[in-house]
Design the sequence.
């Protein structure tokens, strides 16, 4: 089995590998076409959302912030349009992350690393930075010439302009980031008048630095060396996923336009690939797609656009490079039928799991109460025997009022099936009107309150009270429409 | 599998035919490791971390010496940082602390916000100072009262609890609560046989079963003569004297016949220390509220 190993005698330095590899500068060339157009649209939409969303307003009444999307660390609330999330509801964020991962897996099952090519922030910002680079320093040839030629005043000016524009974009990226954590118009004014909190400037600084470095200088290095997704993706993918594929069944053998035309005239085998290297020149990660699917390929389809343009010029059919599967290419070389199977057990399974997780999240979100109660049973002592022979258990309750006005809740205790607990008496510290035998608790607007509650069971006549019982604490507000309950246990022995 | 030697580290590096990259010469079950060079920026970051580490050693406490350590030129110390953070905490709490200092314990309990604050302050103070005897949740132990039930030796109102915490019981403090259960047997005040009779009688007060041969009539007489002055006729106890109610079925030392005989023979006189002077007034106030709201507060 060790036959793949070949002892190389032609490379004398093979026992002294290089300590490091310098970044090979990539000069992606301008390209037009379907996929480039899709990428521009995605870029405008995603960056538009990112930069402008903090300014969208959403009326929540006079006592709440009117920013549509706001992560408010001060009052510990997360606002997303009509949804308000409290810290104890963090599971919604967990659910969103699970959904995000599943959607990524689904994307991968349909079209490989399509996330990388179109939606990944690294790709989107790199695209924007490349556009700036093209605007200031020219296209691929000009940039190569400028890098290899003497340093002229023109080059210096153009490079200065490029870095200035990059820094402005990077600064704006950091600036938009902090707007999600405070009232956006107020913070913009504070930033403009240099009265914003120091933390805002620190975060803008951090994100300016990362954006400028990652999108301006690191680019494909992030995909090749830093990002875990290419590695995970390689383990998740299957042969049915549509990948950017060089159709070597059509392309090979390569040759010049004239030579292949002559071969074709003679009825001999001739490929459509004319070795023009347009696919390599436009690639943002500098790979040669003709070597097949590889770690550097982010599935952006720009090589498809480049190749199509060439094919049109030389009068050959387009899509020599296309979203296809290697399996189909092999099938064509063998004369077998090809297929594209987007609906298969894997994609269906992902869709099903996404539907289940998304549905469960939506259900809990839509049916969640504006009140809440959590119970913690005393651990030491678990119960106490009182002088009249009755047994008492103590609980620490946290009662939650998510409404914007104070509410009084009536607290009751019962068996899980709703029947009363025989001989049980409920009391609480802080009960507003204990005299009437009911336990009423007033919770301020948008607040929680810790309440110490006691359940006492009178064992009279002796032996009739339950030793241990499952119990439910229930709160109902005055209107009787809103409430919550929590299960716990009563220990009598 | 042609290779039986699975880790042939001694092999010379070779070039992998598929990738054209040389290997490290290591092999595990036929899997070889490619010796891809690191990207240059990675190496720079690595060197930068080394430079950072050296800078860190110079700036901050780092190297252990025989009896001390290199202090670093910035003069930073974790102890000072703790002191600073405690100061910050004090400042952060100061508004609520002032409110707590200015309120009576009864006012604290009627204000939900202040009550939460006092309980939060009282809980760790209880854990630090009271839990070793009374248990983490005030559940008590043999000889140490349960603070959650409704049986109070000296009273369970806010004022009673504060008085007990402040000055203790038999603590030697001038204002401490004092009341002794004499050693009736050891000091020869009651003969042995009568002590057994009175112990049986005491058990019968809370409905505990007694032996058929028990002489409850004698026991009742002995009780009336010797015990009722503190424990009251019928054994209902007296809080002025710290004499427990013997009818409730709640026992500080236990309901066993031997335990009661032992108590009457040798007497009792457990001590609760005085906390005034050891704890500041605000902490005592918070502790009072905490204990009062454990469940037994009156």
Sequence:
């Amino acid at each position: 089995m060790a036959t793949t190993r070949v002892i190389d005698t032609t490379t004398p330095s093979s026992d002294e590998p290089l300590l490091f590899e310098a970044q090979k500068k990539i000069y992606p060339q301008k390209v037009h076409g379907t996929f480039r157009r899709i990428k521009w649209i995605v870029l405008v939409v995603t960056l538009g959302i990112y930069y402008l969303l903090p300014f969208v307003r959403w009326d929540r009444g006079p006592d709440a912030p009117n920013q549509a999307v706001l992560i408010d660390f001060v009052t510990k609330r997360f606002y997303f349009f009509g949804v308000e999330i409290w810290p104890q509801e963090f599971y919604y964020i967990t659910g969103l992350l699970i959904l995000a991962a599943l959607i990524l897996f689904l994307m991968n099952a349909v079209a490989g690393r399509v996330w990388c090519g179109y939606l990944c922030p690294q790709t989107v910002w790199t695209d924007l930075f490349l556009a700036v680079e093209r605007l200031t320093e020219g296209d691929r040839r000009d940039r190569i010439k400028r890098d290899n030629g003497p340093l002229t005043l023109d080059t210096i000016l153009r490079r200065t302009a490029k870095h200035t524009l990059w820094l402005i974009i990077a600064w704006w990226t950091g600036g938009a980031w902090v707007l999600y954590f405070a009232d956006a118009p107020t913070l913009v004014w504070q930033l403009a008048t240099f009265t914003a909190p120091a933390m805002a400037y620190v975060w803008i600084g951090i994100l300016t630095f990362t954006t400028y470095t990652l999108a301006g200088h690191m680019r494909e290095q992030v995909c090749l060396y830093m990002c875990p997704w290419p590695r995970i993706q390689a383990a998740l993918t299957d042969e049915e996923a549509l990948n950017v594929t060089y159709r070597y069944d059509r392309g090979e053998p390569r040759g010049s336009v004239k030579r292949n035309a002559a071969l074709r005239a003679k009825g001999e085998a001739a490929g459509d690939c004319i070795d023009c290297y347009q696919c390599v020149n436009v690639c943002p990660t500098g790979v040669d797609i003709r070597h097949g699917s590889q770690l550097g390929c982010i599935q952006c389809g720009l090589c498809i656009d480049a190749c199509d343009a060439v094919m049109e010029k030389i009068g050959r059919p387009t899509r020599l490079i296309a979203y296809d599967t290697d399996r189909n290419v092999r099938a064509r070389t063998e004369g077998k039928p090809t297929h594209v199977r987007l609906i298969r057990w894997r994609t269906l399974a992902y869709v099903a799991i996404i539907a289940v997780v998304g549905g469960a999240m939506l259900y809990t979100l839509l049916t969640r109460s504006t009140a809440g109660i959590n119970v913690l049973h005393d651990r030491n002592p678990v119960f106490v025997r009182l002088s009249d022979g009755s047994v008492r258990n103590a609980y620490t309750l946290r009662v939650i009022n998510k409404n914007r006005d104070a509410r009084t809740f009536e607290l009751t205790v019962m068996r899980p099936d709703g029947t009363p607990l025989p001989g049980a008496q409920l009391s609480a510290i802080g009960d507003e009107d204990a005299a009437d035998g009911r336990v009423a608790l007033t919770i301020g607007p948008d607040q929680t309150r810790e309440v110490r509650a006691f359940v006492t069971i009178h064992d009279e006549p002796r032996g009739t009270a339950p030793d241990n019982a499952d119990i439910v604490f229930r709160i109902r507000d005055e209107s009787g429409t809103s409430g919550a309950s929590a299960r716990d246990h009563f220990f009598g022995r | 599998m042609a290779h039986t030697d699975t880790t042939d580290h001694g092999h010379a590096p070779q070039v992998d035919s598929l990738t054209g990259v040389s290997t490290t010469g290591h092999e595990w079950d036929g899997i070889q490791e490619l010796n891809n060079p690191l990207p240059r920026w990675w190496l720079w970051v690595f060197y930068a971390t080394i430079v950072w580490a050296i800078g860190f050693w110079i700036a901050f406490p780092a190297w252990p010496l025989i009896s001390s350590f290199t202090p670093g030129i910035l003069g930073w110390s974790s102890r000072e940082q703790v002191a600073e953070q405690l100061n910050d905490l004090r400042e952060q709490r100061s508004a609520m602390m002032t409110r707590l200092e200015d309120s009576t314990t009864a006012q604290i309990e009627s204000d939900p916000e202040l009550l939460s604050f006092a309980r939060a302050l009282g809980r760790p103070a209880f854990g630090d100072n009271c839990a070793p005897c009374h248990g983490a949740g005030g559940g008590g132990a043999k000889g140490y009262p349960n603070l959650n039930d409704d049986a109070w030796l000296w009273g369970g109102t806010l004022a009673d609890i504060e008085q007990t915490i402040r000055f203790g019981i038999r603590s030697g403090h001038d204002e401490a609560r004092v009341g002794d259960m004499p050693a009736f047997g050891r000091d020869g005040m009651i003969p042995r046989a009568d002590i057994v009779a009175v112990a049986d009688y005491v058990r019968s007060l809370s409905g505990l079963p007694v032996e058929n041969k028990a002489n409850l009539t004698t026991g009742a007489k002995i009780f009336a003569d010797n015990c009722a002055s503190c424990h009251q006729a019928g054994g209902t106890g007296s809080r002025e004297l710290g004499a427990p109610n013997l009818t409730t079925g709640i026992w500080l030392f236990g309901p066993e016949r031997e335990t009661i005989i032992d108590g009457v023979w040798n007497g009792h006189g457990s001590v609760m220390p005085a906390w005034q002077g050891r704890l500041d007034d605000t902490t005592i106030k918070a502790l009072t509220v905490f204990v009062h709201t454990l469940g037994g507060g009156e």
Summary: The first strand of chain B starts at residue 15 and ends at 16. Chain B touches chain A through 47 residues (CB under 8 Å). The radius of gyration of chain B is 35 Å.
